[in-house]
Write the structure tokens for this entry.
Amino acid sequence: MENELGKLILRQTGLRLGINKLNELTRLVYEISRREGVTPEGILEAPELKEVISHTRGSYLEKFSRIKKYLISRRFPNASFQDDFSVQFQRLGGANRKSRVYREPFYPEMIYIEESVRDSALAKRALKLYGDAPSKTIKSLKDFHRENRVSGIDLKKREIFIARQKWDFIKPCPCTKKVVCCSYHIVNLGFGCPYDCSYCYLQHYTNFPGIVIDANVDDFLEKIDAYLQNFKNREIRVGTGEFGDSLALDDMTEYSKTLVPFFADKKALLELKTKSANVENLLKLDHGGRTVVAWTLSPEEVAAAEEPGAAPLGERFAAAEKCRDAGYKVAFHFDPIIFYGGWDRDYQEVVNRVFDSFKEIAWISLGTLRFHRTLKPIIEERFPNSDYLYAEMVTGNDGKMRYYSQLRIDIFTKMRGWIRARSKTTPLYLCMEEKDIWEKVMGVEKPWWM
């Protein structure tokens, strides 16, 4: 497709271009085609572009610049007027083979176990629960990775690696530069997720082919206990959902059976963030009111199309009601909010469903779609029908692709308005957002922990 489109552009414009400049025009024409639902031929034969081509005098560089300017203004009709407007181009195309997208319930294709944790309770549970899955003992994750290099297309395999964590136990949330920090703290129990959300940053962030699960939970408790001593005078929030879903595999890991009672008498709130309905382990635990179970929410159509493998929206609500009835605090995250035609109607419906079902909510967070630019071609290859990529996304101050600033402000303002119409007191915050966006949307409002 890339070669054919490039040839068409050269033929229609009469330009002679190097690979980088041709790539820029190819990407622009392709995205305009996806965004507007018109053919590349229709774009290149537009009267406005033909006038640019026919009336440009001078060098090929000048002609290229004017054509590119026209295409950018058409691709980003609103964002191009913003101060934060910046575009980075990725090549079209992709691998000749496609990685699988998983929509069915999780079952591992292989279980690897480090020698040091071969006799751990976690390893024994995994081998019992997934008795039909082949297993293999490995010396270490490091050795396995050195001997089994994988490409990006292989990074979502359903393989489990049961290992011993040695150094990355708990830390402050590594907020992106230039954004308002929400004072969160991260427990890194494992790495990877059985769900296959199209927008998931792990698709480009990880260099490991499966899900890493840590067996030495007792070491985590020791490190967490020591870490919490630094915050004796204030309550903090601690979560396990940075690099994976907190509950998706809890029937195997049983992390909740250890963590929830541990936090029951701590001056800290444990947040278990999930898109699952896997809450049975939680329902009879002594949580002491110190655990918050939180669900990431999307409109039903978005969840069905872009969050393969995760629980449908109705099952997430049903699981949240079970936890509420068991005395847990519940929270909700609208992150990422995806912009598309009719987004406001769909998201407002979910907001109202939240408040129709729950009178007390620990907190709600809002965050719009954002990702490193290298993720875009991976999404295009693995999820070719994900047209949300062709909204007006530009390169933000943090280097991530985001909606342009005014669109983010509009999205957040509407979401905040719908939430505040139902509750004036539910703690609300923006995730990974710049200070000026926060101030324009939230004013001086901040949740109690900030």
